[in-house]
Amino acid sequence: MYQLIIRPRATGMAEKAYNWYEEQQPGLGKLFIAELISCYDKIETWPAAYTIINKNYRQIILKTFPYVVVYEIFEENVVVFSVFHTSRSPRKKFKK
């Protein structure tokens, strides 16, 4: 199994999404986090199974929420760079 490394930018993006969903409806943020953790589990187990989107970057799409997780595989590590809302400009997926 690969080791999952989540960059601070991705954590911040997930926290903002969680807070927004909780403001909309209590408990909805928790559902978002549960689905996000499910995606993390999948890419930690089968990182090469998901779509290559740019060079070595890959993404997995959340089922219920309009977000994707952008990551890259480095030897035995999977590094998550962003938890990205799909309505934003795709070019911003890769900005630091």
Rg is: 13 Å
**Helix amount, in percent?**
25-40%
Any idea of the CATH class? Answer: Alpha Beta
Biggest sheet statistics: 5 strands, mixed
* Overall strand count: 5
Q: Superfamily at the CATH H level?
A: RelE-like
Q: Low-confidence segments, ≥5 residues, pLDDT <50?
A: none
- Strands of the biggest beta sheet: in what spatial order? 1-5-4-3-2
Alpha-beta content class: alpha+beta
Chain-averaged pLDDT: 92
Question: What is the CATH topology assignment?
Answer: YaeB-like fold
Oligomer state equals single chain
Terminus-to-terminus distance = 27 Å
Spell out the helices and strands N to C.
EHHEEEE
Percentage of β-strand residues: 25-35%
Number of domains: 1
The coarse silhouette is globular
The CATH architecture term is: 2-Layer Sandwich
Number of distinct helices: 2
